[in-house]
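Quick one: structure tokens for this chain, please?
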Amino acid sequence: MIQAILFDLDETLILDHPVSLHALRSCAFYAASWYSLDIPRLIQDAEESAVRLWKASPVFDYAQRIGHSAGEGLWARYETQTHPALKTLYDWAPAFRVAVWGEALAQQGIHDDALCEALAHRYFAERRLYPRYPEIDALLQALAGYKLGIVTNGVPDLQREKLEGFGLQDRFQAVVVSGELDVGKPERGIFEYICQTLGVEPQVCVMVGDNPERDIAGAANAGMKSVWVARGFKDKNPAHPADLEVTNLLQMLPWLEALGS
């Protein structure tokens, strides 16, 4: 019988990509108020520039290991420094954020250092929204009989900020952030840690997430059942099949009930 349900955070409980796109659009429209610009191209160029520069980060390998992305590097504070790499990011990220916009604007022949600084600060502020998926309140009410946990990859202060903005973290008995533990999904250790915290064995847990390579593969490695939620931002990976696939988390309730019967 299943005793605990574990959830990924970004794009499972809270919207991530749509909010990032909102912030990028806000920046692009602001830039277009100063210059004649192709807005969709500016957004695409900024995204591509962020990824390219991020891969050149002095701590890219660390970021990959704990599951911290280029997009998050545009707005993480890095004030909670549980690893030396986070101090490096604290020092490196401000110039990275400005350079992203510098490269993107240069693609359209614009060179304006002051505007790049303004866009970096604008994204940093505009990205701080944490809407949860519409079914989450009803889902948590329906799961009241289970132990609930969150297993999220990322840097400590940013993931904790998201959890606070999410507004329902008190409904979960345990939360583990990869940057605090220095172990990220899909590594077995992060799943073992939350099981110990909740006082359950992996075989009585279900891991729910949108990332096949991190959430679903990690659950399988840890001996847990898994639910893949298709939010439209990550493709299904046949190499990492989930026990259940859903498009709305409420769809998992009959399956959970059947497991307990």
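The chain has two domains: 4-15+131-260, 17-126.
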